[in-house]
Amino acid sequence: MKTMLKDVMFAAFALALCAAPAVADDVKAGDLVISQAWSRATPGGAKVAGGYLTIENKGTTADRLVSVSADIAGKAEVHEMAMDNGVMKMRPLDKGLIIDPGKTVKLAPGGNHLMLQELKGPFKQGDKVPVTLQFEKAGKVAVSLDVQGVGAQAPGDGGHMMKKMPDHSGMKM
């Protein structure tokens, strides 16, 4: 009986590992640590996609993300989204994005992000999209964006936007 229980526990553990969402590995470059690199799956025919990640500067001097490139995109830029007189506007950060020493900068939906344009193919959930980040001090850094579901709001979300259902198990029918 113990052997069968062990086998069942092992199978459940193996299944849980397979079902867990893929998470990008941390990438270290100089004093920078880049983590949680992800994007969303794109609907058919889409020509743009966003890229999101977190950059932590563990050093004592600032660095700057000056550009991004990706073979899958004809054009790639570092963008910001900001409110201007009550209107959300998006624009490229021509002078790059500063990562101050001891600080963490998060590129996320609705804020600063990577803008990949003129896509040469779709992003499919489960894909890894290679991009190259160019930093002023840390230099070129290769990162892979883990592609989540179309509606994902964070890495590992998978695009599931289900709301928690109330528990009706105690109701009498």
Give the amount of beta strand, in percent.
over 45%
Structural class by helix and strand composition: mainly beta
Average pLDDT figure: 82
Broad shape:
globular
Q: Helix and strand succession?
A: HEEEEEEEEEEE
Number of strands: 11
Amino-to-carboxy terminus distance = 39 Å
Calculate Rg over CA atoms.
20 Å
Helix content: 10-25%
Low-confidence stretches: 3-23, 160-173
What can be said about the biggest beta sheet? Answer: 11 strands, mixed
Number of helices: 1
Give your account of this protein's structure.
There is one protein chain. By secondary structure, this protein is mainly beta. Helices cover 10% and strands 46% of the residues. Strands 1, 2, 3, 4, 5, 6, 7, 8, 9, 10 and 11 form an 11-stranded mixed sheet that branches. A hairpin with a 7-residue loop joins strand 2 and strand 3. It is globular. The chain starts with a helix and ends in a 25-residue tail after the last strand. 24% of the residues are buried.
Give the gist of this structure.
With 173 residues, this protein is mainly beta.
